[in-house]
Structures are given as structure tokens and as C-alpha cells.
Specification:
Helices cover about 25% and strands about 35% of the residues. The chain is built from 4 helices and 11 strands. The chain is globular and about 45 Å long. By secondary structure, the chain is an alpha+beta fold.
Length: about 180
Amino acid sequence: MSRIFGEVRQIAFVVRDLDAALRYWTETLGVGPFFVFRQMAPIDFRYRGKASPPPLLSIALGNSGDVQVELIEQHDDKPSAYRDFLASGREGLQHVSSWVTRGGYDDLMTRELAGGRVPAHEGVVPGANVRFAYFDTDSAPGGVMYEMSEALESQAAALMAMIADAARNWDGSEPIRELVLPG
């Protein structure tokens, strides 16, 4: 548990080819199943503190034990922390995430902003009304960005629980399960 941000609930990888990454995680590592949301764009998106056109993303979520694995592919060149990560020549582990309630999100955001930290990017998951923000905590060797997400709110929490439950007794069938965000 991070004494600053809370429990790390998710590790996230930014990749250039989501389907190749899904094959690796499900076939080579045996992690899954993964639930995939294709071609989605966050709403109320901000990049480095300023309103910005949202990136077009495909995201896959699966669990290995109590830790969720997120795979993210950005399909365009719109400003985002994902684009910056790939443009720096990297691909792979980009951030870890803790999950908070709305009140926890507000408290943590207030504290981070008061400390002079502007999110690298932030927005709202469409259809789920879940806010997220990424902070530049990756300056040290081996460092990663930190994301906070309102994933403990009811609709998101139910989805995260369903994904974790699916992984507990996964027999290798249906490794990739396509989903559509509500709304």
C-alpha cells in the first residue's frame, strides 16, 4: 500500500498493438480473460491542465489475482500521457493506479494541486461517469506514472468485481471478451 496514494489496484501497459499484447498476456502468461472496450474517447479531457481534444483509445482489462492488468492502445496523435510515453521510445508498463471514491478523488486532487502537481492528463470515462487523473511520478529510473480513478464508485466497482471474478476460475476459454461502455 502506498502511504501517499493508497493501495495499488492496477498495473497498466501502453502498447502499440492491443491485439498482440492480448495474445501475449492470454497465451504466453495465461492471464485472463480480458474485457475489451474498443474505440472510446474520454470526455472532459484535459492535457497538462488545459482542455484538449480526447485521444481515441482501446482498452483491455483483466486480472491476475487481486491486481488488474490494463492494456491501452491510442489510435491517434492527440495529446495524452500515452502518446508522450510512446513518443519517448517506450512501450510497456506506464502507470499504476489506486481506486478511490468520489470523495477520495476530490481530497487527493486537492492535495496534489496544492502541492503544485498538475495532472499530465485527466478526464471522465464515457457512460460510466468515472473521473481519472495521471500524475508525473515517473522521473526516477524504473518509475511509473500514478493514476487515481473513481473505480470504487458503484457502476465501475461492479465492473471491476466482475472482471476479477471472471479471472478467478478462468479455464482459458474466451480469452478476449468485447464490451461496449453504456451510454
